[in-house]
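Summary of Year 1 activities. Much of the first year was spent building the evaluation harness for sequence design. The harness presents a backbone, in tokenized form, and records the residue chosen at every position. We chose the following record to illustrate the format because it has been used consistently in internal testing since the harness was completed.
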């Protein structure tokens, strides 16, 4: 199936007329556990993509000159790069914490996975979007790979559920833990 990211293959699976057995209430809990574990792994992919977008923007900004100096020296570009950096580091920290929770089967895994998912999704989309802006009009062309990160950020941000879903889940889990 065609998607916004041509570098990832997708397919539609249909199970028409196939015998199935409901998992019952255990199935919902099992599905949440699987999604939490997948969220941690995908968060690391998103952190890597966000870092790559940041690196691409920084490299372009330091090498592109306007008015006799690198555009990286302009305050607007500096702010973009710093905001991207902060988002990437926050997402990386949350992903490391979630990886610890996953590797030790800690009780904190549901909250840590949701936090990692939210911060990584937001960091990657923000970095991809600002990377395009840093490149200016060139960022929208096929001459640079900025659009590939943008597409990947959008697609991975929806793969296990939207950021809104994970934010709601994080809030619910924090409220449950506090109560």
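For this record, the design step produced the sequence shown next.
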């Amino acid at each position: 199936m065609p998607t916004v990211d041509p570098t990832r293959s997708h397919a539609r699976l249909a199970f028409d007329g196939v015998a199935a057995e409901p998992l019952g209430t255990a199935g919902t809990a099992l599905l949440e556990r699987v999604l939490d574990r997948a969220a941690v792994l995908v968060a690391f992919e998103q952190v890597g993509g966000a870092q790559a977008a940041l690196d691409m923007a920084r490299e372009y900004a330091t090498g592109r000159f306007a008015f006799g100096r690198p555009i990286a020296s302009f305050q607007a570009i500096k702010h973009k790069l710093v905001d991207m950096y902060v988002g990437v580091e926050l997402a990386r920290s949350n992903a490391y914490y979630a990886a610890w929770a996953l590797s030790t089967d800690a009780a904190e895994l549901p909250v840590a996975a949701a936090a990692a998912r939210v911060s990584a999704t937001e960091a990657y989309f923000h970095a991809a979007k600002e990377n395009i802006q840093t490149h200016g009009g060139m960022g929208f062309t096929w001459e640079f790979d900025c659009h590939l990160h943008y597409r990947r950020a959008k697609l991975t941000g929806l793969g296990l559920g939207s950021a809104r879903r994970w934010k709601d889940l994080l809030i619910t889990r924090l409220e449950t833990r506090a109560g």
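The two ends are 44 Å apart (CA to CA). Quantitative recovery figures across the full test set are reported in Table 2.
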